[in-house]
Each structure stands twice: as C-alpha cells, then as structure tokens.
Amino acid sequence: MTNEWKTPPELSWLFEVDHVISPSSFGPDRCTLFPADATDEELLSTWVSADEGAYIPLDEML
Length: 62
Fold this sequence. Notes:
Elements: E1 17-22, E2 30-35, H1 40-43, E3 48-51
Antiparallel strand pairs: 1-2, 2-3
C-alpha cells in the first residue's frame, strides 16, 4: 500500500481525506482515515481505522 492516495476529483465536494498507516509487528498494519482539515479537537472523534486486508482500494470499487 502506498501513501500517495488522494481523494478522486468526483468526490472532492465531500471533504479531503488524509490517512496514516500504523505498522504492526503483531498483526496486520492499520490504516486510519480522517478529514485533512480536522482540528486537534476534531481528530479525537472524527476518524475511522481498519486493518490491512479488511478493505479494498477505492479505485477497485469505481
């Protein structure tokens, strides 16, 4: 998985999404998505995480 993914133009009216990949030596890596312009306070509750293998790339769905 790369860290180069950007929100596709056709979805840009929603909001820009950023992400962090958290490597794990005990299980699958974890990807956490959050609004790119979120404040520190918003980041406390505005995010979603999934383990690698529990999701597919967006371009495979379009």
